[in-house]
Amino acid sequence: MGKIVCIGSLNVDIAFFVENFAGIDGEQIILNREVYSGGQAGNIAAGLGTLGKEAYFFGNIGEDDYTSLLLRDFEASNVNYSFAKRKQGANNYLCAIIDRQGRRQIYAYNDINFTEKDFPEKLYENTSFMIFASIIKEEAIEIYTQIAKKAKQGGTKIVLDPGNIFARLGIEKLRPLLEQCDYFLPSLTEVDLLVGGMNNIQFLREIVPTLVVKKGGEGAQLFSKEQEYSLPAKKVNAVDTTGAGDCFAAAFVACLDEGKSLQEALNFAVHAGTLSVIKKGARSMPSLREIEAFMR
């Protein structure tokens, strides 16, 4: 076990809760508005910290009225953000529209200002896992690939959770980074974007040693060189699915960091992700005790 470094975005999430989504030129009443800390990499780091791991965040932190909220939430989750690159101006933002069934529409604003040269040498040292999450930046794949190559030289395991943003780039643009990965954690929607669906999953299996497809309320499916394993999710009443995939990723890597098997990690991650959707907000990682109780 060592450091687990999460690289990517930190957002201010502004969530609007509605009865139903509005169609084009339609209108719906907003039932409630809430503001949370978010961002894929920030969420995964917070989830790892909540589970007692040595979690680090690398990405941008801005300067605005929400900065104190973002830092306070990191501190509450025991995330080390001391190596993050500060930038002048606003933090990154995400607007989420969430209906009564917990489904969501997301609109993101990212102003990413870092390169591989900004990544601190200290974060390469004694790092067991490095988790890359999507960012909106033209050179993102090149930057991430350079960091991943250097990290692998020191024995660090590389994890990629692509998000829709990276998945839309297509498999060929993503290939240089995929070739560095030990674990790839796309959602079912992201598999569709990358290779046109599960019928073409072999194209991803040929590149990545371990592939885990997150299927939301249906559970997850794991593919490795040695095995293929599916696990359904328990049924719950979803309130907000935002960040459920990030909880899954954090729980999966946390188990691997403790030397657990792939099946054990998948089981823990599916239960953690499922339990997270009964709360509002992207930072809804349940505690270890809550997950273990839910698994019984």
Which features does this protein show?
UDP-N-acetylmuramoyl-L-alanine:D-glutamate ligase, 296 residues
Number of domains: 1
The number of helical runs is 10
Radius of gyration, taken over Cα atoms and rounded to an integer in Å:
18 Å
Query: What's the β-strand tally?
Result: 15
Numbering strands along the chain, what is their spatial order in the largest sheet?
A: 6-4-1-10-11-12-13-14-15
Structural class: alpha/beta
Query: If classified by CATH, what would the architecture be?
Result: 3-Layer(aba) Sandwich
| CATH topology group | UDP-N-acetylmuramoyl-L-alanine:D-glutamate ligase
| Mean pLDDT level | 93
Oligomer: single chain
Distance, first to last CA: 26 Å
Q: Quick one: overall form?
A: globular
Overall description:
The protein is an alpha/beta fold and 296 residues long. Helix content is 33%, strand content 25%. It has one domain (3-9, 40-60, 116-295): Ribokinase (UDP-N-acetylmuramoyl-L-alanine:D-glutamate ligase, 3-Layer(aba) Sandwich), CATH 3.40.1190.20. The protein is built from ten helices and 15 strands. The strands form three sheets. The chain has a nine-stranded mixed sheet with strand order 6-4-1-10-11-12-13-14-15, with helices on both faces. Helix 3 (140-153) links the parallel strand 10 and strand 11 (157-161).
Write the layout of secondary structure elements.
Elements: E1 3-7, E2 11-18, E3 30-38, H1 40-50, E4 55-58, E5 60-61, H2 67-76, E6 79-80, E7 85-86, E8 92-98, E9 104-109, E10 127-133, H3 140-153, E11 157-161, H4 163-167, H5 171-178, E12 183-184, H6 188-195, H7 202-205, E13 210-214, E14 220-224, E15 228-231, H8 244-257, H9 262-276, H10 288-295
